[in-house]
């Protein structure tokens, strides 16, 4: 069953066609990766999925009850502790009692290995821990679709690998659908069921990792070579 369907979606921003007839679908339960050069519409695609933007034309169908969103920056509120940041969606969108909120927050923090940092403030933890806290907040409402916007951006290789592994672990353990927007091809190729390259607002190729990495389509081969550090 399809979790997301884009059919010939177009979106113009500032006179530029950011999405130019984008069509793709995401199956329920898969890890779907979206790659592409900067400014090619990857984050705009996520904003359409979550409803922050509406297409100029074309259609979008999202079969998800609750959507979790991991922002590129982590987007934690500096004046709240890690636990308070994670609890925020529950306090704003539900009428759960504090005991239930606390239990859900502890479960989410435990899922990302961050229970020991519950009472720390964002400034007191590392960038990788901030990403994990943001991820705990994304899953605390029992999301069935999680959108990741550059989850490994600005992280060292070891921490990037930890975050990537966490995406896969949560996908399997919580039976969610995951959409990952990233530049980190080599990391996401280890966990994604399919990878889509977007260029100039269009899907160039959508394929399983092995097929994607072996593609001789010029735009794909160029992206793969750059990811491998080749000239």
The low-confidence runs, each spanning 5 or more residues with pLDDT under 50, are: none
| Mean pLDDT across every amino acid position | 88
Reading off the top of the CATH hierarchy, the class of the domain at 1-65 and 177-231 is best stated as Alpha Beta
> Per CATH, which architecture of the domain at 1-65 and 177-231?
3-Layer(aba) Sandwich
How does this structure look, described?
The structure is a single chain. This protein has a domain at 1-65 and 177-231: P-loop containing nucleotide triphosphate hydrolases (Rossmann fold, 3-Layer(aba) Sandwich), CATH 3.40.50.300. The longest helix has 17 residues, at 157-173. It has 231 residues and is an alpha/beta fold. α2 (82-93) packs across α3, α2 (82-93) runs parallel beside α4 and α3 crosses α4 (127-139). The relative contact order is 0.18. The protein has helices at residues 42-50, 82-93, 98-111, 127-139, 157-173, 185-188, 209-214, 218-227, and strands spanning 2-13, 16-27, 31-35, 57-62, 67-70, 145-149, 177-181, 194-199, 202-207.
Spell out the blueprint of helices and strands.
Blueprint: E1 2-13, E2 16-27, E3 31-35, H1 42-50, E4 57-62, E5 67-70, H2 82-93, H3 98-111, H4 127-139, E6 145-149, H5 157-173, E7 177-181, H6 185-188, E8 194-199, E9 202-207, H7 209-214, H8 218-227
Parallel strand pairs: 3-7, 3-8, 5-6, 6-7
Antiparallel strand pairs: 1-2, 1-4, 8-9
List key phrases describing it.
231 residues; Rossmann fold; 6-stranded mixed β-sheet; 3-stranded antiparallel β-sheet
Short structural description:
With 231 residues, the chain is an alpha/beta fold. It contains eight helices and nine strands.
């Amino acid at each position: 069953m399809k979790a997301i369907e884009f059919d010939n979606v177009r979106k113009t921003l500032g006179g530029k066609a950011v999405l130019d007839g984008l069509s793709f679908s995401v199956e329920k339960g898969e890890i779907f990766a979206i790659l592409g050069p900067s400014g090619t519409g990857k984050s705009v695609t996520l904003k359409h999925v979550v409803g922050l933007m509406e297409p100029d034309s074309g259609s979008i169908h999202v079969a998800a009850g609750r959507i979790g969103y991991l922002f590129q920056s982590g987007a934690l509120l500096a004046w709240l502790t890690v636990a308070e940041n994670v609890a925020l969606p529950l306090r704003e969108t539900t009428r759960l009692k504090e005991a239930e909120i606390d239990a859900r927050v502890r479960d989410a923090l435990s899922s990302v290995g961050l229970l020991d940092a519950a009472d720390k403030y964002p400034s007191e933890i590392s960038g990788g821990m901030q990403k994990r806290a943001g991820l705990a907040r994304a899953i605390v409402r029992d999301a069935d679709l999680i959108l990741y916007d550059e989850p490994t951006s600005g992280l060292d290789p070891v921490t990037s690998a930890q975050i990537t592994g966490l995406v896969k672990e949560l996908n399997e353990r919580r039976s969610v659908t995951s959409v990952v927007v990233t530049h980190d091809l080599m990391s996401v190729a280890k966990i994604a069921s399919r990878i889509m390259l977007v260029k100039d607002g269009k899907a160039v190729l959508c394929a399983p990792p092995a097929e994607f990495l072996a593609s001789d389509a010029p735009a794909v081969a160029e992206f793969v070579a750059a990811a491998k550090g080749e000239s």
